[in-house]
Design goal:
- With 252 residues, the protein is mainly α.
- It folds into 2 domains: 96 residues, no CATH class; 106 residues, Hypothetical protein, domain 2 (Endonuclease III, domain 1), CATH 1.10.340.
- It contains 14 helices and no strands.
Length: 252
């Protein structure tokens, strides 16, 4: 029992077929995700490499749009060849600044690179580690918070059930998808996503795609400005006519 549960938890998203499998499970059980999937379509795979390069890409992309992060990453990658910890430590700060990195991100990258270079951080050892261990190892480094760890787990380790409750865009997407009156808190984000296990990573990709579509079109959520907004418990139960007293996430 424990062995099979462990394997299920460690499922990876490695192809578009995995995305489609997750979507099929999600839209068949969650009417909220079924509605936004009809609007946004299948989300992209968005795979990232493991190890130092993958973690560095997450750090570079902090608080930036996908386009801006991609442009800066391209310039950083051109200056750090091969892209490993020792090479990055040898690149002068002025070169990294010219690539578009802030001093804070340079400091974080050097902190990670130094930990790897000294053997204090072994990213390969985290490939199969529990998420709480990964969070503890990464957030112990200055400049790395829960969001960075979440995104690394989701896109570099490609775990199917990864989730990022602190991501602002994801919070807005959940708010609009569920027609909530307010942006959900961290606790509420986790409560909502319980219903999407073991495919929370696919749900996140779908919600991000929906958020991007909403921003691009400047349309109303689900195409209806006049729709009423609900408190979280009501939004989670209304589609199936369940009692609002049930626990959040239990009615999908």
């Amino acid at each position: 029992m424990r062995r099979s549960a462990h394997k299920k938890k460690m499922r990876r998203i490695g192809s578009d077929a995995d995305i489609r499998e997750g979507l099929a499970a999600l839209v068949s059980t969650c009417p909220h995700l079924a509605r936004i999937h009809a609007l946004a379509g299948d989300p992209p795979l968005r795979k990232r490499p493991r190890g130092f390069e993958g973690l560095a890409r997450v750090i570079v992309g902090q608080q930036l749009s996908i386009a801006s992060a991609g442009a800066i990453w391209g310039r950083v990658e051109a200056r750090v060849k091969p892209f490993d910890a020792a090479t990055l430590l040898a690149v002068p700060e002025r070169d990294l600044r010219k690539a578009g990195l802030s001093r804070g991100k340079i400091a974080t990258l050097r902190e990670v690179a130094t930990a790897i270079d000294r053997g204090a951080l072994k990213l390969s050892a985290l490939d199969h580690a529990p998420e709480e261990v990964i969070h503890a190892e990464l957030t112990a480094l200055k400049g790395i918070g829960p969001w960075t760890a979440d995104i690394y787990i989701m896109f570099s380790l490609a775990r199917a059930d990864a989730w990022s409750p602190g991501d602002l865009a994801l919070q807005h997407a959940v708010k609009d998808a569920l027609l909530l009156a307010e942006r959900p808190s961290l606790q509420q984000m986790n409560e909502v996503a319980e219903a999407w296990r073991p495919w929370r990573g696919v749900a996140a990709r779908l919600l991000w795609s929906y958020y991007a579509l909403r921003r691009k079109s400047a349309a109303s959520p689900l195409g209806s400005e006049a729709r009423p907004r609900f408190k979280l418990r009501t939004a989670l139960t209304r589609d199936q006519g369940a009692s609002p007293r049930r626990k959040p996430g239990s009615s999908f």
